[in-house]
Amino acid sequence: MATTAKTAKKQRARKAPKSPSVPVEELPEPGRREVAAIDEATERVSARRPRLAAKFGKNEHGGVKVGNNHSDGLGWTNRMMDAFGTRSRAFAETEMLRLLKGLASSNSTAPTQDTFNAALAVIDGIRPENEVEAMLASQMAMTHVLTMQAMSRAHWAEHIPEYQAAGSFAIKLSRTFTMQMEALAKLRRGGEQTVRVEHVHVHNGGQAIVGAVNHPGGGGVAFKNQNQPHATGDAGALVLAAGAPVLCQDPKREAVPVTSGEGQGPL
Questions:
Q1: How far is Cα 127 from Cα 188, in angstroms, rounded to an integer?
Q2: Which residue stretches of 103-158 are H helix?
Q3: d(CA 244, CA 235)
Q4: Helix, strand, coil tally for the chain in percent (to 5)
Q5: Residue 103 falls within a domain, yes or no?
Q6: pLDDT tens, 1-22?
Q7: What is the pLDDT of residue 248?
């Protein structure tokens, strides 16, 4: 049953985050089309599968401890292993530790909880089927982070060498991310190549090329016809009749005189 605009407004007012800078009372009400778009977006978000998320805490040494974000610890652990496509808890925890170190701003700090959970959402959204795909998914999450950092540094660079270095690094990382996506797709195809077949129309009197095409050096292009006849029995094909005039570029040209050798003496 569709939610009315008034009910949706009350629900959004209850769930809306509090902003200290802009009071809700000063914000304009959403229009009719915006309310409809919000309702559609709410339905799609509610239908999406929840992503794995962790909660940060402190360990006995004062460092960051990553654990479950709800009371069902065993259920969260199973979700963690499923997100990394494995039954090995050691593998999943090791990959999470690598993400924790890779996303940190320095070797002595840890990333924010939201930054870490964003990377987990990427991996869980990819849905790795095994450990290899999980490692590739972790690399893709880190590659994206580094790409955005390099783009930001290029955008705010004040000197040309810094701009060029950061921009070149960002381009290389973007290409790496594309290659990682292609590698993941190839893994899920089982290494098989995708063959694209298109329709080829051959009209009457025409001839399709079957087989390989050879390019001899400097001699143009030679085609292999796989023992198919060169001539065609189609009556509609263009045929040059015997005795028919052949068009040339300049049919009316004076003949070139031939020297007879008269008046020439021996050398």
A1: 11
A2: 113-126, 131-155
A3: 18
A4: 45, 5, 50
A5: yes
A6: 444 555 555 555 555 555 556 6
A7: 54
Can you tell me the distance from the alpha carbon of 146 to that of 170, in angstroms, rounded to the nearest whole number?
A: 8
| Position 219 in a domain | no
Radius of gyration of the chain (CA): 36
How far apart are alpha carbons 203 and 59 in whole angstroms?
77
Instruction: Record the pTM.
Output: 0.63
* Residue 13 maps to a domain: no
pLDDT > 50? residue 240: no
Domain count, the chain: 1
Question: In this structure, is residue 250 part of a structural domain?
Answer: no
Token reading at 52: 């794995």
Domain of residue 68: give its range.
55-188
All residues at 6 or more sequence positions from 259 whose CB lies less than 8 Å from its CB, including other chains: none
**205-229 as b/e, with b when 16 or more CB fall inside 10 Å?**
eeeeeeeeeeeeeeeeeeeeeeeee
